[in-house]
Amino acid sequence: MFNHGQKIDMQQKAGLTRIKKPRKGWHRADIKAALEKRGLKLSDLARANGYTRSVITGAFTHSYPVVERIVADALDVQPWDIWPERYNDYGQPVQDGNPNMVKRNWGGRKRNVELTVVK
User: How many domains in the chain?
Assistant: First the structure.
């Protein structure tokens, strides 16, 4: 039962784990340099995953969770380490910087859905 004197984090109640994020994301030159240190180029990543180079570079300026995951996996880090402003405290991609608006794109359903707890 809910105790009125106790503050409950709805995401934790839903079983999500809060992550510690850095305050500022990586600069695009840092991302490219980190890839080059691993012997990778943006065009190589794009080709290996069925995208064009422009789609991969587009993730530097626009939120694109699938491509962000590809880049992060190539660098052995999490996407929210590279782009913390694009993810909420639970590692979910957010819309327009609002941590309560989680991006969804499942077969014709609404893209932006308010994060709610289902009982």
Answer: 1
- Among residues 114, 80, 89, the alpha carbon closest in space to that of 9 is found at 89
CA distance 16 to 27: 29
19, 91 in Cβ contact below 8 A? yes
Q: How far is CA 23 from the centre of its chain?
A: 14
What rounded mean pLDDT belongs to the chain? Answer: 76
Residue 1: inside a domain: no
Range picked from 2-6, 58-62, 106-110, 112-116 for highest mean pLDDT: 58-62
- Strand pairing partners for 98? 95
